[in-house]
């Protein structure tokens, strides 16, 4: 509290009163209030002015570093944007003490945010200030007692290195080296994850002399969690080095990583494979990465195979053009064929999500001869995810060989998915229906798939019925209103007489979805009479859904139908014995009032008093 | 891993009136455990990657029939024979070899446990090599990525029939009266211990149980490794807390630490205090606290019993990490607080009573009756009651208003009657103060309603 009275209000300046309150709240017992106040820190600083912010607010904030992590996180974030509030770049170093403390706390998110803010304000330091204020802070953090400060230091080397003198640069390199062989694995992990970034700002000679040895050491660390991070750094380092050095400086380590005894490291190699491929270039790819990739596709752990399978398309795409087809046909495709019948469903489903992409690379003939059998096999896979992934990527094949080649096998697969026991699988295939319909064409659709789409409307899971109505709407968008009128509208309306009230309600839901795409004519002439008739349904749920539907389709109808047909029915429902029906009838009437009022206001002037009466009548 | 784009779980539930096929559960999804059973890996595990061709084992003569002069040589041969690994995921592969190895392991266990003079120096490297080859392996990825140790059945180690005997042998080896730490320390070194600690992440509880006993023995017998073991456990915990939130063996490691803490010399070294404040207390923030809470609370209480001056750190730490939304964890915290209060020194109690009873009061007014109930149970504890009585001047004003209000408002009848008892206790404890507070509360209420 003393801080408060010292900082604001002591001089009796009333204009600072709101600020005094905010500052007061910084000390409040309630975390939420402290948090709110911290989030308004820039307002406080602005009101105090740059000088008092520097001399009073910042020391005060530095003292509050023992607060809840949530408050500290907000503080760390705020301070990153404080440069102007302390008087611009000239004074930006005032922000370092509180951020330094924040960079040493236990909680990772706070620390990371403090480092992020420090990185940000480092750019606002002049080169001199960077050496006088910032770099000493990095050194202090790098030699801190507890691992947290050393971890934070790892993220700060690369931002100051390019802008300091060569003596200081040498020191920074030395500190980074020390942290790479730190005693605690947490710090080594932090260093390994920043290795690539640091390499990028170093002079090439130092990359070769310093970074490579650190990289090699981290890549053979005793902990796999460190080794796997070195794989990420490998991408950046390989990009920096001239081609002729890669073989001696990077490749031994990369080969070792691809065969690491820990599956996590191999997984990482598989996961970063496309980046690695680009970084090492076509020659090494041909000689080294192709066999490595084959091994990863045949790895004994499913996790690794799945990660590699995910990269099949990208890897093939990026192969050097002169030998692409040969490599794929002789080296990759045999592995892919085996993966099609893998024992693990994640592997198969990862493959299924990319395998179709190979057809554009291999062209029509190869696709028909070699890939088509694989697509067909995956379409018959026991695991629904695999089939779904194939179906969801049909567009790739469509471009190369046309979908007809597949349609004979496609149909049973779709039918089976459409009837899968798991509703989530059914839901997923419904979502691909509009896409399939577009590619297979209206004829094929009417002949083979229309029945399925209608069957979903009476599925026993609500989510499926809901998706099915939405699907119908998308189909109509694709095939047009006339198609709708001939094929689906009669079936939908027929369900209004179904003995099951849930199916009758589905009719209403479909009408809600379809009215707009079908247009005024179909809605007024065909759908409206059915809706109105259903207002006499014996089930209250149906009746109140009639009210909801009328509200929904109102904007599509013409004014005559609204007045003469909709209004009396809504009024009747408004006197219903069921509470909910009444409620929704009223909702519809007042809702109608808002949609109709605009309409009426246009008409009133020309049509005279009758409409005014209606207007008054509709108002609540 | 998840590459298919299935819609998220739980859309609006199906409306009534449909019969669900009996094969399906309500949501149409079989339980996780069933799902997993179907996906069993049939690829061999990482362990066999480097054992290029399978060696054919031939049975050796029995140890017990061996002439004394031959015994050590034969023992050594059996150890070497046991270095051959078998694929247990393929349960019919090489049954004969598996049986020979099993028998050999059994003999080795038997021999090291019962006969004296077997463990001579040249056998140490062979024994440790056999153990290392068998037990040290990269643990396979969990078959269930969202493995919930409380809900799901763990994946059991397929090679357990051999692995168990290897662990058994290791344990008997360490416990043998012939065991010489001075010889063992050349082979059971830091690298060995680090790999041993990594195995604690095994999903198989049987394996972790063996590891626990073994690490305990290693800690007890190889004094030179103690500091290193503590430091590595620290690292595992810190990684668990701040990086991955996943490690299967936290409870087991804490159990070992419980007895390690018990043996700490006084005054406590700053390293140990740091461990308490920076590792044990933050462990309370873990999502899976319930799995290791009992062991953790035991460690915390051990620290207090060693050195009462750490009490304030502990209580303030727990208050800092007090669960904000998870009532199940709140009940655990309250349980731990009671364990702490059970052994707290009155002078320490005074230092923390205010913040502590503010939190307890907040718990009493929790709408979750188990939280309120757990807090109110403190008043059934005689020692705590005596502490409250000694400090009723401070505590009663802190809790009074809440108790009074909650007694009128709480939805749960049990809570209301528990509060009445607490109020009655206070009345008997310090009737003057109680009357004053009642009067001022009523006065406050009146002025409020006007």
Automatic annotation (TrEMBL), chain A:
Can you tell me which family this protein belongs to? Belongs to the phosphatase 2A regulatory subunit A family.
Assigned keywords, A-Z: Repeat
Please give the superkingdom of this protein's source. Eukaryota
Q: Which Pfam families match?
A: HEAT (PF02985), PPP2R1A-like_HEAT (PF22646), VPS15-like_hel (PF22956)
Q: Where do the Phosphatase 2A Regulatory Subunit A helical domain residues begin and end?
A: 95-276
Q: What name goes with this protein?
A: Protein phosphatase 2, regulatory subunit A, beta a
Q: Name one GO molecular function term.
A: protein phosphatase regulator activity
Coiled coil segments of this chain? none
Q: Which residues form the Phosphatase PP2A regulatory subunit A/Splicing factor 3B subunit 1-like HEAT repeat domain?
A: 282-363
Q: Which InterPro entries match?
A: 2AA_helical, ARM-like, ARM-type_fold, HEAT, HEAT_type_2, PP2A/SF3B1-like_HEAT, PP2A_Regulatory_Subunit_A
Please provide, in alphabetical order, the Gene Ontology terms of the cellular component aspect for this entry: cytosol; nucleus; protein phosphatase type 2A complex
Q: Give the HEAT repeat ranges.
A: 18-56, 95-133, 172-210, 211-249, 250-288, 289-326, 332-370, 371-409, 410-448, 488-526, 527-565
TrEMBL record, chain B:
Q: List compositional bias (Basic residues) regions by residue number.
A: 32-43
State the Pfam families in the record: B56
A single GO molecular function term of this UniProt record: protein phosphatase activator activity
* Compositional bias segments (type: Low complexity): 1-22
In terms of domain of life, where is this protein from?
Eukaryota
Cellular compartments per GO CC: cytosol; nucleus; protein phosphatase type 2A complex
Record InterPro entries:
ARM-like, ARM-type_fold, PP2A_B56
For this protein, the record's SUPFAM superfamilies field holds: ARM repeat
Among the record's GO biological process terms, what is one? signal transduction
> Where do the record's region annotations for Disordered lie?
1-50
Coiled coil start-end: none
Q: Which family is this sequence assigned to?
A: Belongs to the phosphatase 2A regulatory subunit B56 family.
Instruction: Spell out the protein name for this chain.
Output: Serine/threonine protein phosphatase 2A regulatory subunit
Q: Which organism is it from?
A: Oncorhynchus tshawytscha (Chinook salmon)
């Amino acid at each position: 509290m003393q801080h408060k009275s010292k900082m604001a209000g002591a001089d009796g300046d009333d204009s600072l009163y709101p600020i005094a309150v905010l500052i007061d709240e910084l000390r409040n017992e309630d975390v939420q209030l402290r948090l709110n106040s911290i989030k308004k820190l820039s307002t406080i600083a602005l009101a105090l002015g740059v000088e008092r912010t520097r001399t009073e607010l910042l020391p005060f904030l530095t003292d509050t570093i023992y607060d809840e992590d949530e408050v500290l996180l907000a503080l760390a974030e705020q301070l990153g944007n404080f440069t102007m509030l302390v008087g611009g770049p000239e004074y930006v170093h005032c922000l370092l003490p509180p951020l330094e403390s924040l960079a040493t706390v236990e909680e990772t998110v706070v620390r990371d945010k403090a480092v992020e803010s420090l990185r940000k304000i480092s750019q606002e330091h002049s080169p001199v200030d960077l050496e006088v204020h910032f770099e000493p802070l990095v050194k202090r953090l790098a030699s801190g007692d507890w691992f947290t400060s050393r971890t934070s230091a790892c993220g700060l080397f690369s931002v100051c290195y390019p802008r300091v003198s060569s003596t200081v640069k040498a020191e920074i390199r030395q500190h980074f080296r020390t942290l790479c062989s730190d005693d605690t694995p947490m710090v080594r992990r932090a260093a390994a994850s920043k290795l690539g970034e640091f390499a990028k700002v170093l002079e090439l000679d130092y990359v070769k002399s310093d970074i490579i040895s650190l990289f090699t050491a981290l890549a053979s660390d005793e902990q796999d969690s460190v080794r796997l991070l070195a794989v990420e750094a490998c991408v950046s380092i390989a990009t920096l080095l001239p081609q002729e050095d890669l073989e001696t400086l990077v490749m031994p380590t990369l080969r070792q990583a691809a065969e690491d005894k820990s599956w996590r490291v191999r997984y990482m190699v598989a996961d970063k494979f496309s980046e690695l491929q680009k970084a090492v270039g076509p020659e090494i790819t041909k000689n080294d990465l192709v066999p490595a990739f084959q091994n990863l596709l045949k790895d004994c752990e499913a996790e690794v195979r799945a990660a590699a399978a995910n990269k099949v398309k990208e890897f093939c795409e990026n192969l050097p053009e002169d030998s692409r087809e040969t490599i794929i046909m002789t080296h990759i495709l045999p592995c892919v064929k085996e993966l099609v019948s893998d024992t693990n469903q994640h592997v198969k489903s990862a493959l299924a999500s990319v395998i179709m992409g190979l057809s554009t690379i291999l062209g029509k003939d190869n696709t028909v001869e070699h890939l088509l059998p694989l697509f067909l096999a995956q379409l018959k896979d026991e695991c629904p995810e695999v089939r779904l992934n194939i179906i969801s990527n049909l567009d790739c094949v469509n471009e190369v060989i046309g979908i007809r080649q597949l349609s004979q096998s496609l149909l049973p697969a779709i039918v089976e998915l459409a009837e899968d026991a798991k509703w989530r699988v059914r839901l997923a295939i419904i979502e691909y229906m509009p896409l399939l319909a577009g590619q297979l064409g209206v004829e094929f659709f009417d002949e083979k798939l229309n029945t399925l789409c209608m069957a979903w409307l009476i599925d026993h899971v609500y989510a499926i019925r809901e998706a099915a109505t939405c699907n119908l709407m998308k189909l109509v968008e694709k095939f047009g209103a006339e198609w709708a009128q001939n094929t689906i509208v009669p079936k939908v309306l027929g369900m209004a007489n179904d003995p099951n009230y849930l199916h009758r309600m589905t009719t209403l839901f479909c009408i809600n979805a379809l009215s707009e795409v079908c247009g005024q004519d179909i809605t007024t002439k065909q759908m409206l009479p059915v809706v109105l008739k259903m207002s006499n349904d014996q089930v209250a749920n149906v009746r109140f859904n009639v009210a909801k539907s009328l509200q929904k389709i109102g904007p599509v109808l013409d004014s005559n139908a609204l007045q003469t047909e909709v209004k009396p029915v809504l009024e009747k429902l408004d006197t219903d014995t069921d509470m909910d029906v009444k409620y929704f009838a009223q909702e519809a009437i007042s809702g109608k009032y808002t949609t109709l009022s605009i309409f009426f206001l246009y008409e009133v002037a020309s049509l005279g008093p009758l409409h005014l009466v209606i207007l008054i009548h509709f108002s609540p | 891993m998840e590459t298919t784009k299935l819609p998220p779980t739980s859309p609006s539930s199906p409306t009534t009136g449909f019969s669900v096929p009996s094969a399906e559960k309500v949501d149409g999804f079989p339980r996780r455990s069933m799902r997993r059973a179907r996906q069993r890996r049939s690829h061999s595990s990482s362990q066999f990657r480097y054992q290029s061709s399978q060696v054919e084992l031939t049975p050796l003569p029995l140890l017990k029939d061996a002439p004394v002069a031959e015994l050590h040589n034969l023992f050594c041969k059996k150890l070497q024979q046991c270095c051959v690994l078998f694929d247990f995921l393929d349960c019919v592969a090489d049954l004969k070899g598996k049986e020979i190895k099993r028998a050999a392991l059994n003999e080795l266990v038997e021999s090291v446990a019962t006969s004296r003079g077997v463990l001579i120096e040249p056998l140490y490297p062979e024994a440790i090599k056999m153990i290392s080859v068998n037990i040290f392996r990269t643990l396979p990825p969990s078959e269930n990525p969202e493995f919930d140790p409380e809900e799901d059945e763990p994946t059991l180690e397929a090679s357990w029939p051999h692995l168990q005997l290897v662990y058994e042998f290791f344990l008997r080896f360490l416990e043998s009266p012939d065991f010489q730490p001075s010889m063992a320390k050349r082979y059971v070194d830091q690298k060995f211990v680090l790999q041993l600690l990594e195995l604690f992440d095994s999903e198989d509880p049987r394996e972790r149980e063996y590891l626990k006993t073994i690490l305990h023995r290693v800690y007890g017998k190889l004094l030179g490794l103690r500091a290193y073991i503590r430091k590595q456990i620290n690292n595992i915990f810190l990684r668990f807390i701040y990086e991955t939130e996943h490690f299967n063996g936290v409870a087991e490691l804490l159990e070992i630490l419980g007895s390690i803490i018990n043996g700490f010399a006084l005054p406590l070294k700053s390293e140990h205090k740091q461990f308490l404040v920076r590792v044990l207390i933050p462990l309370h923030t873990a999502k899976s606290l319930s799995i290791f809470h009992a062991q953790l609370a035991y460690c915390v209480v051990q620290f207090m019993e060693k050195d009462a001056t750490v009490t304030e750190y502990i209580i303030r730490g727990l208050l800092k990490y007090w669960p904000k939304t998870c009532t199940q964890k709140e009940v655990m915290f309250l349980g731990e607080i009671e364990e702490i209060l059970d052994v707290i020194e009155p002078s320490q109690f005074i230092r923390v009573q205010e913040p502590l009873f503010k939190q307890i009061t907040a718990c009493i007014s929790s709408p979750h009756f188990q939280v309120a109930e757990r807090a109110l149970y403190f008043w059934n504890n005689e020692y705590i009651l005596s502490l409250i009585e000694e400090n009723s001047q401070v505590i009663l004003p802190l809790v009074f208003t809440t108790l009074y209000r909650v007694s009128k408002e709480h939805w749960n009848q049990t809570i209301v009657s528990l509060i009445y008892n607490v109020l009655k206790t206070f009345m008997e404890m310090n009737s003057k103060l109680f009357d004053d507070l009642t009067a001022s509360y009523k006065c406050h209420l009146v002025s409020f309603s006007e």
